[in-house]
Give the backbone structure.
Amino acid sequence: MEENLERIEQDPLPEMEREVPAPKGEIRISEDVIGALATQALLSVEGVRPASAGIVANLRLGRKGSSGVRISVSEGNPPVVQVDTYIIVKYGLRLPDVSWDVQESVKDHIERYTGYAVKEVNVTIQGIDFGEPKNSAPGQEEREPAGESR
């Protein structure tokens, strides 16, 4: 029985000797998928929420945009990604620190999940969230928005 074990250990497996051919073709990841990853990264930063990317992005002019993020992917192997983020920050947080956290989070998410290199992450702070609903001053009644009736 020991002879059988020694013979099995000494015989190389024919499957391991064969070289596995490399797959042919290329893999491309949609800008929408990269945008979704960037949006998830934004949501993971405390005190930050996505803002509108503006009228240019809404009209689909320029780069693709959604949920406070615009993505541009350059051709190449591997592709290089440029990200523009548009955020609203909770009042009381230090803006440079929040911006740095957003940049690091977005870069990390995209590079980890896609393997693409991130060239830059631009952060535009479009507003401050004071945490108060509109028209909530003491003694004031809530007014109806213009043009609507109950």
Q: What stands out?
A: The chain has a mean pLDDT of 79. The first helix runs from residue 2 to 10. DSSP finds five helices and five strands in the chain.
